[in-house]
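Bug #77: duplicate submission created two jobs. Keeping one. Sequence:
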Amino acid sequence: MFIQTHPLDDPAYMRFTPGEAVLPMGTPNMAETDAAELSPLARRLLRIEEVEAVALSLDDVTIRRSESSEWYILKPAILGAIMEHYGSGDPTVADSTTTRILELLDDRIRPAVEAYGGEVLFKRFADGTLTLELIGGGGAKKRDMMTNIITHHVRDVTAITWIGDAPTAEIPDWVFNGTEEVPTGPEAEAVLALLDEKINPAVAAHGGRISLVDVTDHVAYVRMEGGCQGCSASSATLRQGVEVEIKRLVPSIIQALGAIGFMDYILIHEPIS
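Kept job's structure:
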């Protein structure tokens, strides 16, 4: 996707033209207040720090930045968010039910599936039936679990139709249901000791905590809690602080890979003896 950018007379505003329709034909332009309420694309952009407002027209997205920010810093995140929106299959304008579906996909379903190499694309919602496309990893038998999560939280969804190839990778149940037992085994014990003795005392000074959720196939899953949860610096904390310290004291851990919702995970390359 080639997205053109157009500076406006007011330096706080910039227009972005994705090259694809922004609003459906015949839809009135959406001012900042309406876009924030009705548009998944606008809400995705508003999650970017320093983006203050979004307005939509047939072919363009107009964004207002904060006075303290600069476009050269914001533009990469904005361009990425626009491309992510069009790749997700999400509509630009959604009713309240569709909005709840999209929020649930973004908050709970997509992060888990994407962490295992898959994608979940919104296709349509009509007459109580939600159609989703599942691509790549995720575990075919987890479709029932994802269906149950969506129908439980969005009562207007009475049926879900899944299209696409059956995925092959397996996602641990706790990723979706939020329940887990205290991890055991030498790898888990090494990470737990490090968290308790060195990492959490430092994180606690900022009101946060990092807990170990699971160790599966040499992958250690840790959850950012308290002041860390949802913090804009949590990713940097993981990679620049937590990961570096774990690599230094537990050499078998080689890389921080990504996130599952509020959970970040670290790959353990080989068993700890």
